[in-house]
Amino acid sequence: MSGLDLFERLESNVRSYGRMFPTVFVRAEGYRLIDRHGRIYLDFFAGAGALNYGHNDPAMKAAIIRYLEADGIVHSLDMATEAKGRFLHHFENIILKPRGLNYKVLFPGPTGTNAVEAAMKLARKATGRTAVYGFTRGFHGMTLGSLAVTGNRAKRAGAGVPLPYGMALPYDGYFGPDVDTIDWIERLLTDPGSGVDLPAAIIVETVQGEGGLQAASWPWLRRLRALTERLGIVLIVDDIQTGSGRTGPFFSFERAGIVPDIVTLSKSIGGFGLPFSLVLVRPDLDVLGPGVHNGTFRGNNLAMVAATEALRRWETPAFEAAIDEKAALLRRRLEGLRDAVRERGIAAEVRGRGLMQGLWLEPPGLASAVSREAFRRGLIVETSGPEDEVVKLLPPLIIDEAGLEDGLMRLEAAILAAIETIRSEVAPSAVAGR
């Protein structure tokens, strides 16, 4: 096998990241990926948020090896195993109890979209209502139910069928900074003449990971929580990408001071990048009977072993404090980059929260050009937004300051190169501001 020929010849056209980052990777460690030519790349993509603790964390790897060498159970459906018991014990005592949270834990299939499907099924069963509302630019997965509450037109079109029982409500800031969209939502849901029925649930991301890194304000989230409580609507927080410390605290909603009825977790809850998903459910909403939502790979015990080890990082406040320090550094550096590109006549904004931040750039196509230029410089970053208009940074939470600074220097060089490329391809007037 040489180069990418085999992948081009045999793999489906649906592949995407293999096209964005065209090399064959062979090894990974921490925040670094190494390709077959020995070239080292800084990974500011982190498995689309599935590798918050980096590649091949030594403690998690050792725990997995010990478990396998002891002939531990790998596959168990939803049977009780020692690995599951240890995970539940640690999750309750390290995560739930210190935060005063009382949830039952549902183990769905191991993907994020399966967690979302289970959450919506629970809300519908508990309320007797059928609709679930999402938000403009929201993203919740690629199965039909998740697509019905996803805002991205291109992703929705991929379903090939109508997507009923969902609707997009305006996210925070959708109508500009002077409009509180909760007023609009409240009017729609409480006016008997609006033509809109009360939904079973509303599902929300506190930061829209695929929708352009729009971050909901804490007051907006508190108003949303109060409205759903008053109207008897189940509030689902999709913490699949924003959770497990990605925005600072373990749960992205903690600093808003709210408690959702249901929380979906996946991606980095598996610790090592192993498939794993959870749905946290308010106990009175745990209404599905045995087997009503199941899946052959719910019992991924290797993921539970790694996840248990990952939770140890949260036993003291130090890990969260370190994330906040790196997030502040990232914000300062991005604001400097924003100012630098604005001086070159390019519209730019810093978006996001925690170690889930990025730059919105205009004209169209510039963010994608930055991603390509970054890859040439040994930095892996993706784009976000309905038109790929945001350069999105998801460095592993364990990255050190030197690695973060190195990546940001490469990003700056990539941005400057991309601006010159865009200017050479389009008329100057097209890049002269917003």
TrEMBL record:
InterPro entries: Aminotrans_3 (IPR005814), Dat (IPR004637), Ectoine_EctB (IPR012773), PyrdxlP-dep_Trfase (IPR015424), PyrdxlP-dep_Trfase_major (IPR015421), PyrdxlP-dep_Trfase_small (IPR015422). Signal peptide: none annotated. It holds the Pfam family Aminotran_3. Pathway: Amine and polyamine biosynthesis; ectoine biosynthesis; L-ectoine from L-aspartate 4-semialdehyde: step 1/3. The keyword Transferase applies. Its cofactor is pyridoxal 5'-phosphate. The keyword Transferase applies. Its EC number is 2.6.1.76. One of its GO terms (biological process) is ectoine biosynthetic process. Keywords: Aminotransferase, Pyridoxal phosphate, Transferase. CDD domains: OAT_like. Transmembrane segments: none annotated. One of its GO terms (molecular function) is pyridoxal phosphate binding. Belongs to the class-III pyridoxal-phosphate-dependent aminotransferase family. This is Diaminobutyrate--2-oxoglutarate transaminase.
